Amino acid sequence: MKYLDEFGDPELARGLVEEILARATRRWTVMEVCGGQTHSLVRNGIDELLAGSVEFVHGPGCPVCVTPLETIDRALAIASRPEVTLCSFGDMLRVPGSHQDLFQVRAQGGDVRVVYSPLDAVRVAEAEPGREVVFFAVGFETTAPANAMAVVRARELGVENFSMIVSHVLVPPAMNAILSSPRRRVEGFLAAGHVCTVMGTAQYDAIVDDFGVPVVVAGFEALDLLDATRRVVAQLEAGEARLENAYERAVSREGNPRARAVLAEVFALCDRTWRGIGTIPRSGWRLSDAYRDYDAELRFDVGDVHAVESPQCRAGEVLQGLVTPDSCEAFGTTCTPRRPLGATMVSGEGACAAYYRYRSAGMTVRSPGRG
Amino acid sequence: MCLGLPGRVVEVVDDRGTPMAVVDFGGVTKQICCAYLPDIAVGEYAIVHAGFALARLDEAAALETLALLRSLGSVADEVGPGGAQAMA
Questions:
Q1: If you count residue pairs, one on A and one on B, with CB atoms under 8 Å apart, how many are there?
Q2: Which residue among A65, A130, A153, A253 is least crowded, i.e. fewest CB within 10 A of its CB?
């Protein structure tokens, strides 16, 4: 398809791989922030092709992976109530809570439905006024505009039996936290292109200035990722740190002003706990005071939730780029996408799932010579 | 959930005041909300996330990027022999 095929051109990709390998005088550590980019890098074998020149550290940009266990447990408790229909994106269903997941709640008679868009959940509420319809609103700045519009639309339509469990997370505070860590290894970033379609690129100026790291906005196809990596390496080799946009066909400096205006109205900044990472100040969105009446956690009292993490799972270290998924003992043995111990093995954006899917079947990619 | 995909607008429709579009993702079509991109037109491409069009794809910028990458390819040819043997 247009805009996909051209940016996967193997001929041009070879040229970019050679260019990066030829220019790098040492091995640089670069983080791709978004889990969608992790999957594309691993699926295309880009991380292996560039292994001599670039170490890709996989970032925390997987919404399913970083949603706190307490929030999952509360969603499970709300979904178990007889009057509730819980609507969710499909990849949340298999995420393990402390004791069960949404699939198990459904098997026990809970009304759990998968929707493609949060507007579908509003439609369910409209069509079934006798049900309390709750949407599980997680995600980054990319999903937030859709979730925000769901409550705006519910209010416009006078739909009162609709509410949301909101656990939104934001990319720039996470990048700040990674760079502020005493264990910091990251020397440059591939910024998440689709987050920038909404929020624009200006929010990264401060990160470049404060930490002196190159930030290059990247798309998701092989050429997008290779071109952005080429630009990060060029900056690192020149001792420079700038913000560049390597995804100009989709990303503008100002992002999507309409979406940003609705986000500012519906959500308010809050501290947020990231699963496996900890609390990051002002790193999330909750419903603003103007929309608090749509907060499912205020509408349904689920009492105290005591979350219990799997003692075996190393997802927290994976999310911080401290270990690779395949260095975990549970990887591919007691932890698989079918029976995951942690959320990183569940999601289409999780690093463990990417390694399991593209690496564990004995797939190998030959590395190119250095020319 | 967090996967944004490019799709081509094949029809624009109004759903009780909300601009919607039928978008073709390489053969699969879906109804997409265009509240954040109300002026998108039939034939244009958009990045779609969770049922919402978030950004219009700029064809001129796409062609410019591809032209730049092609010119880099020829530079890499001059850099030396060898090269990627396998690219999935």
A1: 187
A2: A130
